[in-house]
Input
Amino acid sequence: MTRMKRTLCILIIIALLSANAFAFKVVEDVATKAGGYDIPIKVYIPEGQHQGNRPVMFHVHGGGWNGGDEKQVPPASVPADCGLLCDRLGVIYVGLAYRCKGNAGTFHLALKDLQASIEWFAERAKKFNADMSRIGFGGGSAGTTLSAVLAQRYPNAKVYVGSEGMYNVLDLNPELSHFPSEKARADFGLLTREQKLEASPFHQVRKKPASALLLHGKDDWLCHYTQSVKYGEQLRKAGGKCKVVLYDGINHTCRAIGYPKVFENSMMAIAKLYADGYGLENVDFSAIEKKLDQMTAPHYPYEKIPVDKLPGKWKSGRFGTFIFKEDGTGTYVAPRGEQKKAFTYEPKGAYVAVSVEGESRERQIHMRKSNRDIYELITADTRNKSRRHGYGKIE
Output
């Protein structure tokens, strides 16, 4: 091969890799100070072909309002769809932070932190080429309660995305939704009717609210899926557009790439919401679908598990460690290492059946095509119909 041909091949490869890369830059700063804490903010700015002022998506993290300590609040974060949609649609993502339980925070104080951070960004909108007439809000789990309230308070909010949402704390049915528990409400300043009302966007819907997409698993044990169904009805009654997407067999995660089919469907629904709500033109949805296929391919499980790739140590911080040997035996170590049990395993097509000493149930271990992750599928559970315990390979 001539030098010119080699150079041309290298350039083609670089171009192909660049086409698959996400083009954005990240800016991290402190948006405000409150209660002695720095409140961080994280901004993802699309680069490349996107010109002019761009719409903004403010994201509020979940986590049950837990976290934080005497030194710092939980960090600002963005959802898994950020990289792809920031790049392909030209949407600016802004991760917002707030005081949580570990910071003596309350729901009311959290809202103040979030609004102060939004003001910080608005003052710098020109610097970020942001169009503040086209903003949106989103969150997952505990972040939906806060973000949905914000979406009702800002009339320039055009879109809203909620995952595994809790939208009505005031009329919460504890037999259906276990979050927020009575203790969680007490710890986060939600004891009185007025406080619960402030944390219930269901009772705060403005006329012609932002176009919404509500994602929810039907097996959600923490926030029952009827929270999304009823909130969607409330938004439509007020003249808003709302699509509610429910997933069978899914617990408390609708945007995790570990559930590739659900992830792909959620991402495409979000992309179409942005295109419509933000008024984006010439969106290449086929290119987004193609990129999603590339992203999710390693996360699909094997239809026939390759047993030769199983020997080694697979660890989860919450659920312990499996040490598989080549001879069909192994050792299970409890999360804190205080208990070890022998096990045997046997391939059964799409999964490996693991029998741990002293346990009556047979564990089902699946492997993803990345060869770096396995997960335990539990099909009988008191909380929901099925759930997964994930383990990563460390040796």
Summary: The longest helix spans residues 3-20.
